[in-house]
Design a protein that fits this description.
homodimer; about 150 residues; mainly alpha; 7 helices; about 60% helix; DNA-binding
DNA sequence: TAATTTTGCATCGTGAACGATATAATTCAA
DNA sequence: TTGAATTATATCGTTCACGATGCAAAATTA
């Protein structure tokens, strides 16, 4: 039996599990405000820069537009964002935060810190976190180009 | 504007993205054999120990049975596994590899190495990988108990 | 043993992800 | 300028994930 097949030797399974469990940890904080985790990511993108076309949001999150479009349509239905055709380019759909969308930033102000604390442990702390960030960034950069 | 909200400061987004992109990298290798990534994970579990109840497989993957059940039903339909009631405990559904399921291990023998190579970069290599593994394991352990 | 609780699995509904495809607007090239 | 290629978004189908719920078997307890 090939030890390369052992589940405990798989980087991907660790990433997959860590990602899922951390997303689950976000859930109670977000669902209390009617949000899902991917919707929260869209908010992070728009809080940095409002009024972006779907494509820019998708690219920023490394997602396809066919994932982001319905996601944003749900957010529109919830009154968090508006969608309107681009003036310069009528193909684009510009996504803008509503007041409710901006208000959520105030309501969720403690979420990033809470989630940061949720992963603090022996090997991941203020000192070592940058190394982890660098490793994940390098992996993402390498896979992105493929 | 709170810098804690910056997308680039979020560990979770990195994990989420790295996990998704790495899963995407697996896809061409797996879909060539009619497999999805979660189905591949189930195979890894069964190759280690055949004839396990749904619950043990789910626990090993940190998934709920309501995720694993339909996933395994699809694998049954593909002739990769069989499902049969437990003899000792009739509530259990024992999952067993078929010959086709075992044959896949031979067909996929190069996948783990290929995927390992896919993430090798400056900061993640033979020397540093154990640190990354430890960090992810610690994060998983911390989140698991919540 | 009978009644209650727990456990293991399944079903259902919703929201991602993503490949494939469609459509309309824009850009490019002849 | 017209026709072809590209781009931006949307729709559709399939497969996860997962909360909620249902049900039957097993374990617990009265």
């Amino acid at each position: 039996m090939n030890e390369k097949f052992l589940l405990d030797n798989q980087l991907c399974f660790r990433l997959y599990t860590a990602s899922r469990l951390l997303t689950q940890a976000y859930n109670p904080l977000l669902s209390a405000h009617g949000l899902t985790y991917p919707q929260y990511l869209v908010l992070l993108v728009l809080w940095e820069k409002d009024a972006q076309p779907v494509n820019d949001i998708a690219k920023r999150l490394y997602l396809e537009t066919n994932t982001v479009t319905p996601l944003i349509q749900r957010m529109e239905k919830e009154g968090i964002v508006t969608r309107s055709k681009g003036e310069k380019d009528a193909r684009q759909m510009i996504v803008r935060l509503t007041k409710k969308g901006w208000d959520l930033q105030v309501e969720l102000v403690d979420v990033p810190t809470a989630m940061g604390n949720a992963v603090i442990c022996e090997s991941v702390n203020t000192e070592t976190a940058p190394e982890l960030f660098k490793m994940l960034d390098d992996i993402i950069a390498k896979l992105k180009t493929k």
